Amino acid sequence: MIVRPGGLLLREGALLVMHYRYGGRDRFNLPGGNQEEGESAGAALIREFREELSLGIALGPLQFCVETNAGDRAVLHLLFRVEAPDASPHLDPGHSRALGLRWLQAAEVETAPLYPGIGPVVAGWLRGESLPSPYLGKVEQTWY
Predict the structure, then answer these.
(1) 35 pairs with which residues across the strands?
(2) 20, 97, 108, 141: which has the fewest C-beta neighbours closer than 10 Å?
């Protein structure tokens, strides 16, 4: 199983996502990446934000835990609330194939092709709705 920590970074109520285009379709990933051997999930997330977005972050609480499949590989997403004093991320093309960065409002997150595919849950969280558990189980992920 691959462990992929991801970050929920907010600015004025909007969520930071990375914009990709696969098969002629847009997809928005929560910033983060795969955990490396011997690395904690928190350290991996801090490293990924620094490498891909040139941004230092402070790790906050775990908000969501969700399972997906990437082909024949199981992926466990650990999604943390993160803070960034600067909050001015800059995409580093040497570390990411993303086309750009976007700040999405809750209504956009709800319908966006988000990876992992929990847009409605994240949109509810952005609106202040609570969940009985941060564990969301396994979700089907649309791939292009």
Answers:
(1) none
(2) 97
